[in-house]
Amino acid sequence: MNADVRQGDTIFALSSAPGRAGIAVLRVSGCGVVRALEAVAGGRPEARVARLARLRDPITDEPLDQALVIWFEGPNSFTGEDVAEFHIHGGRAVIQGVVDALARLDGLRPAEAGEFSRRAFDNGKFDLTAAEGLADLINADTQAQRRQALAQSMGRLGAFYEAWRAALLEALALVEAALDFSDEADVPGEVERQARPIVDRLQDAIARHLDDRHCGERLREGYRVLIAGAPNAGKSSLLNALARREAAIVAEEAGTTRDVIEVHLDLAGLPVVVMDTAGIRDATGGVEQEGIRRAFERAGDADLVIWLVDAAEPQWSAPDDLTQAGAELLVVRNKIDLIGPRDASDKKTQHIDITLKNDFGVDLLSGEIEARASAGIGLVEAPQLTRARHRHELQICHGALKRFLDEPFEALELRAEDLRQAAAALGRITGRMDVEDVLDRVFAEFCIGK
Prior knowledge:
Elements: H1 3-7, E1 10-14, E2 21-29, H2 33-41, E3 51-56, E4 63-72, E5 83-90, H3 92-103, E6 108-110, H4 115-122, H5 128-139, H6 143-153, H7 156-180, H8 195-210, H9 215-221, E7 223-229, H10 235-243, E8 261-267, E9 270-276, H11 286-299, E10 304-310, E11 328-334, H12 341-345, E12 352-353, H13 362-377, H14 388-406, H15 412-430, H16 436-446
Parallel strand pairs: 1-6, 7-9, 7-10, 10-11, 11-12
Antiparallel strand pairs: 1-2, 2-5, 3-4, 4-5, 8-9
């Protein structure tokens, strides 16, 4: 795809969910919006005012629907271009009829995935972090996810990083001035030394930001709980009890679960992903062995491992491989209704007792998972890292700043390159990389070239 050519196209797409609905919204963006409105809706409405219009096929003049039509004149629109919205009845035939009518117009084509947001970014309506926040907002399942995604989509995280980038550009401007404009009277002789405290403060701030226990990413992706144990310990039954539905097959036959089954839960507004795994034993069958291998593999991604044991034959010790990646371990003893009161009180290790036959103890266990998820996610007001992409770029930035502070300062050209690399890494997070920013700083602060 030639981005320059396709950027000039007028695009359209269904912006509401597919399928039958009371109302469906078709969005059109580009230089051909007014022409599309005239061809399909009989004219262009007043900007930002909804108008009732009879939609017709531009070729056959066949009536398609009676709909509300809104026109947003660029640049005051989501994409920064002319945008039209057709609020039509949500039947499949109606939607397809209007889509076909738009497709018949020259210069209009169906939008590609994310293309409306890409045009909004290209036209400066928001940065990359806000675009990612918008995607997370659409996919949010819990209130905590919604709050984090909404703050990010409104530019809070981008502003946080842009403030760091502004400080970094200030330090870089000082060093560049010392390198290139040292003969100017307005540039202090030792201006490069002023950059060190700026970089020092910035490095400390980024280090603290990175040392967050992956809380923001965990909130976005969900606190991951792995249920493990011997065959027939009740793992699938526990998954169903926590999900409050039949998410997994339960049978007396050992080894029923072969693959990892995931269920997404909302516990007090927190996203929790519970995974049921194959029973861990010395299996002889190839399929069961693969299921056990996958159980150990997924344990590496877990935040909490529930080691479920049979009260009648408790296997208290979980395999070391289950927690080698640093996951917490919670021992849960099931089927306590099958043992006597004396055995039930005999606690060889800290654990939670449950009986899945009548859901005894499930609420207590659910509350324990909620408490651990709350501690693991660590909801805070400050902007948090939400994606591995951000973390990777910040690690690059932190490393470049460390080189600036640790390496010989006399090699000023190399220290300037350290700052350029750090600034580029921060710029890649928000999508804003412009070398002119450095020159703007130099000219504004040191009056060079006046």
